[in-house]
Amino acid sequence: MTVDDPGAAFKFxxxxxxxxxxxxxxxxxxxxxxxxxxxxxxxxxxxxxxxTDLTRWGRAAKVLTSAEAAALxxxxxxxxxxxxxxxxxxxxxxxxMYRLFKTAVEGWRPDAxxxxxxxxxxQQARAHERLAPEARGFGWSWHAVGPALDRVLWPAARxxxxxxxxDELQRVNQCGGEDCRWLFFDTSRNRxxxxxxxxxxxxxxxxxxxxxxx
Length: 214
Fold this sequence. Notes:
The chain has helices spanning about 15-20, 50-60, 65-80, 80-105, 110-125, 155-165, 200-214; strands spanning about 30, 40-45, 130-135, 135-140, 170-175, 185. By secondary structure, the protein is mostly helical. The chain has one domain (about 15-214): Orthogonal Bundle (Jann2411-like fold), CATH 1.10.3300. The protein has a two-stranded antiparallel sheet. A two-stranded antiparallel sheet has the order 3-4. β5 and β6 (about 185) form a beta hairpin. α3 crosses α4 and α4 (about 80-105) packs parallel to α6.
């Protein structure tokens, strides 16, 4: 598998870039000893293990071009310690984002430490934003001098900030799958969607119910 091949490790059912970034784990489990705040943040299997994983996700999410991914991969080979730091930052950011959206789903008060993580990464991202012309009007683009190993984090942080401050935050929901708990943007009319993917989590739940009845 090449760096340009996103592979089969990632699925995109979140409906928003930040939620798909949060869903870069195979599933989340509950913590029985968590008390009143069970974030269901026990990771079943990590999907962001190496810098190549991070660039593959960026390619699959369409936040990196093939050329950008290849340039980042070469830069990572030249600076493996910095690449490892970028992956660690990505996981820290992802988990802070997860807990912030989880508090929104549950109606809890967010933790100041999680807000600090997102604000710190958002500040880094904003420093690289540039206004650029588009086919019809203008839009935001990213600018960096040379390959920036934290490049993938910028759009993820901005997406999270935009959704957290929007009127659509109430449409963020969490999958009811026992071995999933992914976050998704609920576009149903009455916000009644229960599963991130009916074909998988929904059908698994049906099978479990059937087995319990019989």
